[in-house]
Amino acid sequence: MTADPKEGYKLGYLAFQKARYPNFMALTEAAVRGAKPGKKPFKLYDDGGLYLLVHPRGSKYWRLKYMLDGREQVLALGVYPDVGLAAARSSRNRARGELANGVDLAAQRRAKRDGRSDTFQSIALEWLARQRFTSKTLKKAEWTFNDLIFRYIGKWPIRTIKPTDVLDVVRRLEKRGKIETAHRTKQRIGQVCRFAIATGRADRDPTQDLRGALTPLKVTNRAAITEPKRVGELLKAIDGYQGFVETEFALKMAPLLFVRPGELRNALWEEIDLESESPEWRIPAEKMKMRRMHIVPLCRQAVALLKELQAHEIDSPYLFPSHMERRRPISENTLGAALRRMGFSNTEMTAHGFRAMASTLLNERGYHPDLIELQLAHAERNEVRAAYNRAVRLGERREMMQDWADYLDTLRHRIDKSISGRASRSKATTATRDRNSELH
If residue 296 lies in a helix (H) or strand (E), which one and from where to where? Predict the structure, then answer.
């Protein structure tokens, strides 16, 4: 009977040998113990690719033969008699279980010998430890790796991970309708793979072959009020807000400074300089999305609000602490919930919308887009240009921030005048109606 040798790896070596040689028998302890060396090395085969390599000097080595990507590989499993037949078979079974999960055993052994691991998980943890994430971003990244990635490809040597393997991971999320999470997960896998390439542990990034493979993200802009009259009405509503003092002042500062909501709620008094000739708020790099220190010039209106807030003697390092725990800032939902209570739906105005409001109206007022982008702390691709702009254009930004605050006051006063005008017209109409009534 003839048998295809390639089929031997599918059937198990014992089944293959029995098909090829009807009298073939698996190894026994006695056969292993009694194997005598010859002039040349020879092999005694067992089941599942396990064999004993006997050297001319009498040394006996356990080896496991297996196939990976169409190539024959050999894995050392120990030396007889330190490792007996039963122990060698147990090691073979464990190894074949890992092979079934796509683990490159030889690469794993090389990595262990070199004193480092080349598995995706070990490299991902190494990459994560080097990042300067905020605590919130770090927690989200750790959750993405631990819950969505490691359980599927964490133990795989990173060189063995193919585009289809990554696609399998993110498709699970797509099927649950988690499109944004699927894209973020693919992004994290790509970041780790590129780090592995840079450190000599991978040759390519498999996520690069998945462009267009995922369901496209639906881009939704955060709701913002940008029509001047409606902005004035929003400011008047904020002026009339009644709630916790921390929320009240955070709402009033948000349109003046138009920083990211997370930057505003995490503001510390130690970062604020109210006494210098040019008051400013210096946000440390670790708090910023772009990981560089950001200066927010404080206009006269902002300084007045902050001094008024100081007078409340709030015992906290935060400008806007939680009313339940003074050592913590207000929650990320506080400003949004306050806007809802004032009657502004989340499709009309959000806490992040103050940034879009400022960007839109400052552009309409003729300010250069680069100046606005600098104050919004958006990314500047050219680092030399970015450093130059931050240093040289700070004076222009101070003027722009003061003009912006004055413009907001103008919009607020227009609403006051409009209300006053309507009240006067209503009063005059009532008086005319009364006079006409007397004549009749």
Answer: strand 294-297
Correct CATH for 228-417 of 1.10.443.10, 2.40.50.220, 1.20.1270.10, 3.30.70.260: 1.10.443.10
Cβ atoms 118, 159 nearer than 8 A: yes
Q: What is the pLDDT of residues 99-137, one digit of tens each?
A: 777 666 666 665 555 545 789 999 999 999 888 777 778
157, 201 Cβ separation under 8 angstroms: no
What ranges make up the beta strands (E) of 103-142?
none
Sketch the domain layout of the chain as residue ranges.
5-100, 120-210, 228-417
State which fold the 5-100 domain adopts: Double Stranded RNA Binding Domain (3.30.160)
For the segment 431-437, the average pLDDT, to the nearest whole number, is 58
pLDDT at 182: 92
pLDDT in tens, 375-412: 998 865 455 455 555 555 889 999 999 999 999 999 99
> Could you give the CA distance from residue 84 to residue 73 in angstroms, rounded to a whole number?
22
- Let me know the angle formed at the C-alpha of 118 by 115 and 119, rounded to the nearest 5 degrees: 125
Q: Which residues are catalytic?
A: 260, 289, 352, 355, 378, 388
3 state SS of 61: strand
**Is 186 within 8 Å of 210 (Cβ atoms)?**
yes
Residue 359's contacts (CB-CB under 8 Å, 6 or more residues apart) are 258, 372, 376
Run of H or E including 164:
helix 163-175
- Residue 360 zone, left/alpha/beta (φ > 0; ψ -120 to 50; rest): alpha
Query: pLDDT tens, 43-54?
Result: 998 888 899 999
Structure tokens at 407: 């413009």
User: For residues 301, 306, 312 and 315, what is the CA-based torsion angle, rounded to 10 degrees?
Assistant: 170
Q: Which of 316, 399, 404, 403 is nearest to 357 (CA)?
A: 404
> What's the N-to-C CA distance of the chain in angstroms?
125
Long-range contacts of 63-71 (CB under 8 A, 24+ apart): 64/91, 64/92, 64/95, 64/105, 65/13, 66/9, 66/95, 66/96, 66/99, 66/105, 67/9, 68/99, 68/104, 68/106
CATH superfamily of 120-210: Tyrosine recombinase, N-terminal domain (1.10.150.130)
